[in-house]
Structure formats: C-alpha cells, structure tokens
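Friendly challenge for the regulars: who can give me the structure tokens for this chain first? No prize, just bragging rights.
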Amino acid sequence: MSPAIKDEDLTLLKLILEFAKNKKIKLYIVGGYLRDLLLGRQKTNPDIDFCLQRGSLAFGRALAKKLKCGFVVLDDENGTCRLVKKIKDKIYTFDFTDFRGKTLEEDLLCRDFTMNSLCVDLEYFVKGAALEECLLDLYGARKDIKAKLVRVVDPGAFDDDPLRILRAFSLSCIFGFSIDKATLKLIKAKKGLLSTVSWERIRDELFKVLGEEDSFECIQMMDELKILKLVIPELELMRNVEQGPYHHLDVLKHSMETLRQLEKLIKEFKRNKEVQGYLFENFSGERNRLALMKLAALLHDIGKPKARRRQGGKTKFYGHERVGSYLTDTIARRLKLSNDEVSVLRKLVFWHLRPGYLGDTPKPTPRAKFRYFRDAAAEGASILLLSLADQRSTKGPLTSLQDAQQHEKVCASLIKEYFLKKNEIVVSRLVTGDDLIKEFKLTPSPLIGKILCELEELQAIGKIKTKKDALLAAKKLIK
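First reply, four minutes later:
Bragging rights claimed.
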C-alpha cells in the first residue's frame, strides 16, 4: 500500500470493498484522491470518487444504510450520488457514478483534465499493491502532473460541462500548475458557454481561487482572458475609469493591485495566531473571512463609475462607498452567498474609507475609535487590513510618504486594539431604559435608545463610571 494513505482511510475503503464484493460489483477509485496521493497532499476532510459500470444510485443508497451515513442523489439522469460520513472530527465524502460510456476507458475519456483521469481497481488498491503498480493512466496524467500542467483530456470537455473553464483556473491556482496552450485556446473559444452554468457552481470555483494564499495571478489571468467579466460583469464598468492625482492606476487596475497588496499584507501576519484564526473563520461551508476580504478588495471601489463627477476641473467620487455597498449586495446575492457573507462584504465596501479618516490625525481620539469599533463590529480588523492594502495601492503624485506612513501606523495600532478589545469582558450598561423612564418620567420612544447609545460611548471612553454619573449625563442629554 502507498505510504501516503492514512490508516483510517484504508479501514473505510476495506468496508466499502467488502460491501461491493457481496453485491458482486466492481468498484474503481478515480480522480482527485489518486492525484493527491501522487502529489503527497492530504485533505483534512477527504473526498473520494468511485465509478462502477451501472447501478450507482442503488448501490450508494444501500451502502449509506450500511455505513449509517448521509445520502443524496446529485444527478438522477447520469447516476451520481454522494455519501457523507462523519468519524470523530473528520468528514468523508464519497461520490459514486455510473460509467460515462460503455467501458471504463470511455468513462476516463469523459473526465475533465488529465490529472483527474487516473484510476485504480479498488480491490488491488486495498490489498496493498503499490500505487504505481495498480494505477491506470490512459491519458498521460502522471506526465502532466510531473510537468505541472492542467490539460483537458478531450477537446469536447468544455462542451460537456462549461464549468470546467473555471475549474481549469481553480486547479491551476490550488496546485501552482500552468494551463497548457491548447487548453487555453479552447477556453478562449468556449468561454461564452459559462452563461449556461448555475451561479452556485460558479461561486464555488471562484472561492476555490480566492481561498488560496496566492490568488492574484490567477485572477489577473482570468481578467486578461475576459473570463472574470463573465463571473462579475460589474467589474467591467471600472475598466479605464481614470482617477484623481492621488492615484496612479485606473479603478479596475487599482482594485486588482489592492488584491495583490492584501495578499502580501496577510503574509506579514502569518505568525500571528490570533489574526490567522480571525482570517480563516468560516462563514459558510469552507468559505472563510479571508476569501471574502479578497473579493471585497476587488469590489471596494465598484461604486466609483456610477459616483464619478467632474467638479471644478477635478474628478470626484463622492458617496462611492454607499453606491458600492448596494452593488456588492447585488453581486453577492447573485453568487448565492449567505446573509452573513453578504453582510460582511457590504460592511467591508461601505466602511473601507473610514480608517483613512481616522489616519488623518496621528492619534485618533477615544471617541473616534469607539465609534469606529462600534460601527465596524466583527469586521473591525478586516476593514483596517483592507484599508492598508488600499493605501499601498495608491501611489499617485499627490500621495506623500508621510501620509502613507501615518496611515500605516494608525491602522497597525487599531488592529492591535481590536484584538485586545475582542478578548475583553463586555461591561454591562450603567443604566437601562427602564431606569431612564423611571428617573425622568419618560415614555418609551426612540429618544431612550439615543440616550443609551450616548451613555455607552461616554462609559467606553471613561467619562462616566457609575450609575450616578450616567444619570447626571442623561439629564444633560435630555435638556
């Protein structure tokens, strides 16, 4: 047995083989699991693809009962189902598919890329045969893996499933492979077919790219090949939109550069466990805050084309953050992101200028800092990081080194303060709405909420410390 396979994986595969033999069914492992074994990669939550001549749905349903795990039909017409088995803190995903052709060879010809066309007979694999001895490689997968190439198995691959156009980029980004020239030529010719693909599937491939440490070059290539505008059409409005003398790039190029600078910036925090835990906090499935921040880097100035005005011979973008927030909502919902993810993206775009205002003074006031952290809430640090990347991407003739250094210093200080406050015990209010009603003979109204908000701010900056202080302050506010 290949030394790369884990014991717990092998135990499960033996159970599946035993069940298949009792049903007199021959099973083959295909695709990514084998590719990862050759590359020495191991997923935290393995997903293993199987194929069999026919009857995958009935087999999968019966196996799910045996393994006591989840079962779902993915494609009734083509006979594809999925089993999900949780063992302790590990989640296994098993996909079973009928041959996409009369024979195994025809099935492998229908795979997307050569790296995913590898196959082994499950029986030989489980019995301990060396991977190289039992591996079936009909279409040059090992050669392409060694050459670090993403290459289609068959010229009709994109006609069979246009999502494979995006998958070529996600695989290239994940593995650090190049897309071979003939495949790139096919992508250019077939890119229009992406319009037939569901937004959920497009989203998943886009976030596979954004989820990698280095996404910029892949996103840049997608833009150059005019694939990116099919995924986020609104980005095209930003192309060639010139900016004022603080900028050296047009709006789209500046946004792309912000993504590049954000990725460089995140590497500076690689040893900071608290920041890393924050960045890789999951929101939905395997999508994390960092991937959302990267998307926000691309979208943070999306409102500029609509907000653009000429005043006194100068180009202005007043309110572009608000316009951008609305456009971001449209884009995020089209990509079928969760409500929490939509909220994070909108907040990042809407508040991305706020740290710049705080950085206008060497030392922001306690009141200004309180209001920032109150408004930014959980995204207090992510907005600061985005602002830093935005600033580093702004190098026009009017951008001074002194201003840039002050911005960096203020943001770095606020990032530290965010994590200190994050770990603090939340202090309860000194007075409640009922206290105000009783003390000042008030009736329930929005005024009470406003007073409590002001008192919370005064308490946070140390102006009031007792209930008596709070009531005296409330009396002044009411007057």
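The chain has four domains: 1-140, 148-231, 232-422, 433-478. The chain has 26 helices and 13 strands. Your move, everyone else.
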